[in-house]
Design a protein that fits this description.
187 residues, alpha+beta, Nucleotide Exchange Factor Grpe, Chain A, domain 2, 3 domains, 3-stranded antiparallel β-sheet
Length: 187
Amino acid sequence: MDETKETSEVQEETKEEIKQTELPKKKEKKEKKNKESVKIEKMAEENALLNEKILRINAEMQNMKRRNNEELSRLMKYDGENFIKKLLSIIDNFERAINMDDTNLEDEVSKFLSGFKMIYSNLKNILDEFEIKEIDCLEKAFDPSCMEAVLTEHKDGKEKNIVLDVLQKGYLYKDKIIRPAMVKVNE
């Protein structure tokens, strides 16, 4: 019986030793699991931040693309504006030449004048084709957004701020004023 007692004591001691060695191992495993879960949480937070950053960058890129397309569209819409502005002064000169009285002119000068009229007609057709329109302002109320009052005069029987004379025509290119009209306004 002593032997059984000794054996059971040894077994208990062995069990106790095993427990004592297993406890630190379990603690280590728990600590390891805690550390891993903390790492996983950190990685999940970083992942969420990176995903949010990607979304913001993507939205910013789309906005930049949209703004760039709008700017490009605007530039293309008014592409020939500088050329047209230079062309308008030529048209003004043709109008002055055409307004000469050709009834008292020699035959040769009259031919030149009819040639000017044909050239002027062709230029006007080109302007119409490219949506360049004259600003109609004679006998209309003065509009400072599309007219410049160069002179004023008082005429009885006319309303105040009515355009009496157009000194230089104004033009619209599509929907944009490229040259305001220079006018004489009634005081």
